[in-house]
Design a protein that fits this description.
heterodimer, A: about 190 residues, alpha/beta, Rossmann fold, seven-stranded mixed β-sheet, three-stranded antiparallel β-sheet, about 30% strand, globular, B: about 150 residues, alpha+beta, 6 helices, about 25% strand
């Protein structure tokens, strides 16, 4: 018997709608930070990562889990009903506790770039850490984003992903109860 | 719960009590549960929530499956103190009934001895109800003596 099963959203319909809106806003305005409430998530997942899973992942979206998320696996299976795949190349969503190797995830094709993976990546914090400068669609002025917990060579990894456009991977960063998004269209530089 | 899943007998037993609980009225489950003292504390893990389930059928029981229609189902999952999760799926939209059935399922997994006092009376009542209905229906059965006589 592993850990006891925990609840998900307190009010499934409205909380999922609010979280969807937060993700949508974050994707439309890269780097905008939203706060998530009304959810319970098991460790090692933060509230935001749990809420994004409950909102976006279901039986139609193959999910790949980073081995570090194993303690939360039962909760994800129960609440999302997701099909969990062993091969990252077959996933629509990936849940990771650190930035995964983006080359192993599907980046979509030129005919249907929407078949690429969306990575839900948990980081340590948006309050301290490295400062990045974001620019691109959705940002009238370049915006700065502070993230603790991304790899040292994130900017060069992202440059490669960004250059694949219209293919490429979208990233949802979650830290505790906060989330932000980095769609493939955003250009990132180190400050 | 994993041990329950790996043991086919335990699985059959659980199927039986879940089906009895799914048919029992809320008051009957509640009075059976409170017989042993106050209800234990539980937390809702999911629901109770109501949705539609597609019921599929097979013509003659062996034909290819077809969608018969949708039925309203209420489901609930709870966790009782110790950590056992109880599930319930019931027909209709009685949320209290689904919740109580889920609590009973969780308790029965921890203490299978409760079956005697909790499930057996409910199962007995359901058996009787079925029997009464069958008898009522049987009383209206028409024997076509005249046709039988004509043929013989």
């Amino acid at each position: 018997m592993n850990t006891a099963l925990e609840a998900g959203f307190a009010d499934p319909v409205h909380d999922a709608q609010a979280c969807f809106r937060a993700v949508l806003d974050a994707m439309a305005h890269p780097g905008r930070i939203a706060r998530i409430t009304g959810v319970t998530a098991p460790s090692p997942l933060g509230l935001a990562a749990g809420a994004v899973l409950l909102t976006l992942v279901d039986h139609e979206t193959p999910l790949w889990l980073d081995p570090d998320t194993e303690p939360a696996r039962r909760w994800i299976e129960f609440h999302c009903g997701a099909q969990i795949v062993a091969d990252p190349a077959a996933c629509a969503f990936a849940l990771t506790m650190a930035l995964p190797n983006l080359d192993r995830l599907p980046a979509g094709s030129h005919e249907s770039p929407e078949t690429s993976a969306t990575v839900i990546c948990q980081v340590d914090s948006f309050a301290t850490g490295k400062v990045f400068r974001l620019s691109g669609p959705g940002l009238r002025e370049p915006r700065s984003l502070t993230v603790q917990g991304l790899p040292r060579d994130f900017v060069s990894i992202w440059r490669r992903n960004h250059s694949l456009f219209p293919r490429g991977i979208d990233l949802i960063l979650c830290a505790g109860d906060r989330l932000t998004a980095l769609p493939r269209t955003v250009a990132i530089e180190e400050v | 719960m994993n041990s329950t899943l790996s043991d086919p007998n335990a699985n059959v037993a659980r199927q039986h009590w879940m089906s009895v609980l799914a048919r029992a009225p809320a008051e009957a489950i509640e009075s059976a549960l409170t017989k042993h003292g106050p209800l234990p504390a539980w937390t809702r893990v999911r629901g109770p929530e109501t949705g539609l389930v597609m019921v599929r059928g097979r013509a003659g029981g062996s034909g290819s499956p077809f969608n018969l229609g949708e039925m309203t189902v209420t489901r609930c999952t709870v966790r009782v103190g110790s950590g056992s999760a109880g599930h319930a799926y019931i027909a209709g939209r009685d949320e209290r009934r689904a919740e109580l059935a889920a609590v009973a399922d969780a308790l029965l997994q921890d203490r299978p001895a409760l079956r005697e006092s909790l499930i057996e009376p409910l199962a007995e009542a359901q058996r009787e109800h079925r029997l009464t209905r069958a008898e009522k229906a049987a009383a209206t059965k028409v024997e076509f003596f005249s046709m039988r006589n004509m043929r013989s």
